Amino acid sequence: MDKRPARAYVPIDIDRRAPLAAEKLDLLILKTLALRSEHGYGIGQRIEQMSRGVFKVTLGSLYPALQRLEKDGLIGAEWTTSENNRRARVYRITAAGRKRLAREQEDWERVSAAVTRILKTT
Amino acid sequence: MSPLRWWNDLRHARRLDRQSREELAHHVELAVAEKVRSGLCEVEARREVRLELGSPDAVRETLSDARVGARLDALGRDLAYAWRTLRQRPAFLAACVLTIALGVGSSTALFAVLDAVVLKPLPLPEPDRLVRIHDTNPAAGVMRAGVASGNLADWRQRTRALRGLAGHYTMGRTLTLGTDSEVVLTAQVTEDFFSVLGVPALLGHTFTPEETAAGLFNNAAAPVGADPVLVLSHALWLRRFGGDAGVVGRTVSLERRPFRVVGVMPAGFAMPEPGVAVYLPWGFSGKEPRDQHYVKAVARLAPGVSLPQAQDDLRRIAAALAGEHPGTNAGWSVTLVPLREDLVGDAGRTLVALLAAVGLVLLVACANVALLSLARGLEREHEALVRLALGASRGRLVRQFLMESLVVCALGGALGALFAFAGTALVARSEAGLPRAHEVAMDWRALAFACAAVAAATHVSGLPAAWRLSGGLPAAGLAGTPARVARGGSRLSLRDGLVVAEVAMAVALVAGASLLLRSYRRLQAVDPGFDASHVLVAPLFLDMEGYGGKGRSRTYYAQLVERLEALPGVVAAGGATALPSSPVGPDFDRPIWPDGAPENEHARWRAWVRVITPRYFETLGMRVVDGRGFDGRDGPDGALTVILSRGLARTLWPDGRAIGRRLVVDYSTAGTYPYDVVGVVDDVRFGGPRQPPRLEIYLPHAQKPYLVMNMAVRAAGDPRHLAPAVRAALHELDPTMPPHSLHALDDLLGATYARDRQTMRVLSAFAVTAALLALLGIHGILTHRVRERTREIGIRMAVGADRSRVLAWVGRYALRLVLWGVGAGLLLSAASARLLSGLLFETGVLDAAPALAIAGLAVLGLVVSLHPAWRATRVDAAEVLRAG
């Protein structure tokens, strides 16, 4: 078995160290946007906060994912002007996105519960 | 993809890219601001953000790659990469580009010619409604003759199938401006000529009905009407009047009579034939003969009337006229032909055959470039395999190699288009015996053809290499050992197939070219019945005003012959109204019959009339086979005499001598008299070697003086050197009567089969090009095969194989390629024989001529294989083993 101690305090670059999570980044983005429409930075911040600092979202993983989701019609985006007069691109979840989120969330919960059960078996 | 769409996509992609940049920058700024708030200095904050978030530029590229326009960006990158790769091998690039330029250039030029001559409609309004009318008399063997001026007016009155009908007749006349005289081609045209064709004057106007009614000509086609007018062609207007818009109303001298200029035709108006410089109105007096078929007629079909319907209508009228005027019209009917078909004739057949040939040349060129790419591809196999191993998709590799081929073909096509520009300019100016040659030019249609040729060439030349290279197995290639294990010998590889195809196409072209060459030699070998060498021809157009009086032209020509014969270096001088191969002069036929023949036989024969001076036969080198030529006995007061062509003598009196018999010539308005036959002269090929001899009669100029004569001078040496002396003699006799032209007779004779010569030369050039390319192909593939197998050869030699076995291997290989190629080439030429058969003269497509040429090509194929074979024997076994 891997003898290395768990290093939960080190943020994990979501694309490099946690391929499992990277695959699920789409799901995390959808979840974030389901709570509230956000611009890119905001999405990154939310994921970081909600994972309590475990996931660190890089530009290289976040934006291609956003582009993909937008192309698939799961999220929408528009340019808005923020309070300090800067233009920002704000993403929101679409109806199709919500549907997808519900399905993927259910799948994930089943799978992760199963994986956890297996790993906890002694 | 259309260029517009491409452009829009590109602009859209640029905009999205700008947005990504802004969005990413915003993200970074917010992150930096956050760090600064937590107490870091700005510089440190930026550093940390960059470490944590990664490079925004890289992300932007990833995003843009994934977008719609990405494919185009990639296209541009592929192009740039292809260009960089090709630039590293300038020799390879130059060879490929030149080869493609040759193929694309020649095929584009030929297409432009075919397009202008055959495909494009005549540059006249509604050209498909224009028809040419021919008189026909099948019983007398006349299929397409000019029409008789006397019938024209009746047709116009009686038919409703035509919207207009006009006659025209061209001849040379002397135009004098100030003191400068020149002979120009003039067309006398009847009422409606310009309206039938639908072309108005550029300046002034075309002829009014009054002007036309006044435009009368006498029997010798000399204008005799009062207050004569003319219209200038655009070319003459530019050349002699400097394009002066004030020319309308000015007076010029034509045949010593003052003519008022009433109009100028627009540029590009080349009717009734290119080169016509002056138009004269032609009014009919109502007494025109119905039996002189020399007028050309052009008509426009009435709306809704088809050509067969119009023909039926005119045939009905011709039948009625035959009933009304049995003496002149019996047996005569008409045939209608689309005007374009009449002008273009069978030139299309030649051009289609040549275009097919040039298509083969283009294919051979493509095959050669494909071979070069394949050969080079082998050197690049490693690159391709590395890229495959690194994850490049096969589609991307194919695209990459096609891109290189596109660069080569586009460059070649651009160069080829320049070749084509030069080539078409040459054709437009040349006298290749091609109708509508003046319309030949590179235009957008030809350029579109060039683009299509480039696109086709890109694929044909690029796909084999792309195919081959993208099919490799990365593991085998990267393992480092040469993956080239000698393969079994009997299968033809892709490259072998390309070489075989090249040889086959070269064989077909060489076969075709040698057939044409054989046919051309046979044309040249035809005895024309006269000796064209050492003869200078000067057509003269004396005018009515100066020489119309009794016997004045007789005196003039008698004096001229005397002066010409007195010139140093002149052997003999003489003239004829119509001289073999000379395109000018009155060339007409008349009904004839043996004196005493029953009246129902009078319309049975027609003979072509040539009026000649006494020493004409000696001058032309024609052979008097019986009786005598004309001399002093055949003067104006002597008995009327005639000399027959051998064919005519045999036709009329198959069983006995013609000499001493009497022949009646129906000279229409000039009278019908019997003539004593005093001689028989050998047949001549009047219209060139392709035309069979005609039935001809010769009359003495002294008894039947004509104004227009083709004067000929036989020289001891080069006749062209006599031109200044002849010109001076003419000037001395009458400075206002310059010759129409001065040509060596063998040039004129050559011009009658100029198209055969051009076709033969062009096809030979194609054949030689294709053969050279095919030989290069054989040499190239063998060189590469030997290089591929250097190791194997070395090992074999090390274990005892001697050089002869190596030689035999290469030889067998070359022989196999050549034999396959010759076999396929024979099939190809058999398949294309029909294209060629119409062009050949007394030469069957199964002629033996190509056999020798093909055998020669096969031998050459083996000869070029000697070099790679020799290199194979020089492989140093020891070195190979050390290197291995």
Task: Record keyword descriptors for this entry.
heterodimer; A: 122 residues; alpha+beta; Arc Repressor Mutant, subunit A; 5 strands; 16% strand; B: 884 residues; six-stranded mixed beta barrel; six-stranded mixed barrel; 31 helices; 23 strands; 52% helix; elongated
Word description of this protein:
- The complex is a heterodimer of chains A (122) and B (884).
- With 122 residues, chain A is an alpha+beta fold.
- Chain A has a single domain (12-120), classed as Arc Repressor Mutant, subunit A.
- Chain A has helices at 19-23, 25-35, 40-50, 59-71, 95-120, and strands at 12-13, 38-39, 55-56, 75-81, 87-93.
- In chain A, the strands form two sheets. In chain A, strands 2-5-4 form a three-stranded antiparallel beta sheet.
- Chain A is globular.
- In chain B, the strands form three sheets. Chain B has a six-stranded mixed barrel with strand order 4-5-10-7-9-8. Chain B has a six-stranded mixed beta barrel with strand order 15-16-21-18-20-19. In chain B, strands 14-22-13-23 form a four-stranded antiparallel beta sheet.
- In chain B, helix 13 (347-379) runs parallel beside helix 25.
- The A-B interface holds A 39-41, 44, 56, 58-60, 63-64, 67-68, 79, 86-89 and B 19-20, 22-24, 26-31, 52-56, 58-59, 62-63, 66-67.
Shape of chain B: elongated
Count of DSSP-assigned helices of chain A:
5
The proportion of residues forming helix of chain A, as a percent range, comes to: 40-55%
Number of domains of chain A: 1
CATH level 3 topology of chain A = Arc Repressor Mutant, subunit A
The DSSP helix count of chain B reads 31
Q: CATH H-level name of chain A... which superfamily? A: Winged helix-like DNA-binding domain superfamily/Winged helix DNA-binding domain
Largest sheet of chain B: 6 strands, mixed, barrel
Give the tally of structural domains of chain B. 4
Strand numbers in spatial order across the main sheet of chain A: 2-5-4
Global geometry of chain A: globular
CATH 2nd-level architecture of chain A: Orthogonal Bundle
Across the major sheet of chain B, the strand order is 4-5-10-7-9-8
Structural class of chain A: alpha+beta
Largest sheet composition of chain A: 3 strands, antiparallel
Query: What is the alpha-carbon Rg of chain B in Å?
Result: 38 Å
